[in-house]
What we know:
The complex is a heterodimer.
Chain A: H1 3-24, H2 26-30, H3 34-52, H4 58-81, H5 83-90, E1 94-98, E2 101-102, H6 104-109, H7 114-123, E3 132-137, E4 143-147, E5 170-174, E6 177-178, H8 180-186, H9 190-199, E7 207-212, E8 218-222, H10 234-255, H11 259-283
Antiparallel strand pairs in A: 1-2, 1-3, 3-4, 5-6, 5-7, 7-8
Helix pairs in contact in A: 1-3, 1-4, 3-4, 4-5, 10-11
Chain B: H1 3-27, H2 31-67
Helix pairs in contact in B: 1-2
Amino acid sequence: MTVWDIALRSVIFLIVLFAAAKLLGKKHISQLSFFEYVSGIVLGDIAGEVILGEDQYIMHGIVGIFIFTAVTYLADFLSLKSRRFREIIEGKCTVFIENGKILEDHLKKERYSVEDLAALLREKDVFNIADVEFAVLEPKGKLSVLLKKEKQPLTPKDLKIKTPNEKEPQAVIMDGQVIYEALGKTGKTLEWVNKELSKQGVSLNNVFYAQIDSYGEMTIDLYNDKTKTSSPNARPLLLAEIKKTQADLESFSLQTSNKAAKNMYAKNAEKMTSIQKRLEPFLKG
Amino acid sequence: MTVASNVKQTLASLKGIEAQLSAFALNSKDSEAQQVFHEAMIEMAEIKNEIQMRVYEIQREEEQYQSS
Lengths: 285, 68
């Protein structure tokens, strides 16, 4: 057994394990089900054994890895098709707290002590069991907690604040490279980006990172961290401009002595206010 | 500053706001935002037209005042 032999075996099994992980996908890495959990452990063990064990045949290791991968893949596939099978393979979740009451039988069934439950709750930043409406132990061993309504974080909806929907921002320049795929999603062109950049007084090759938000505004980060760039502020500016114009119209209405003009100004000032109210959620922040 | 120049300035602001709203209506990706910006732009154009008419009126009055 030479060093070269071990090196060769390492490379071979790295490739085999990589192929197996690619085949099983992301779900495998998250180790959601029993098969994924077990095969995750065993695959690594087989590879390690064969790489360092002199008397092990490479082929034997590969067969072992292949079988574990294939069975896990098959189990994944079958659990997609059948609900029964899924329940057997991935297990069901167990309710630990329902209507604010701890279900002792269920705790016992999963062999969890009350301290274990309290520890899992603390991991979720819940220190008072009285705050919990419902808690369930997932098959993976994680506890999911639904807090009582009054203990849940405050949302804009609770405050009856209307918040506009925002689409995900797109990173259009990364590491100084234009990402055409993201640019396509925003519906903008390279010319548009160049124009926006020249508005801020920078050229494309100085930009390290650029992102376009839901309103088509671009935030940029330059290679040179000492250069100041302005964050997009067109929306707050527009809101300020609308407010100012509304105030102007109101003062015209007070100043003029012409009755028809007075009415016209007052009416439009009111219209401005209504527009401003509707736009405010979109123009803030 | 005459009244006319004040009103003209506001008219310019209104035009600017209308243009900016139109840009946002085109650039926004959320359809609700697009709609709100678009409607605001149309109403802004209506206000702009009325102020424009008023500017014409004021100018005519001032001309009469100067000529007399």
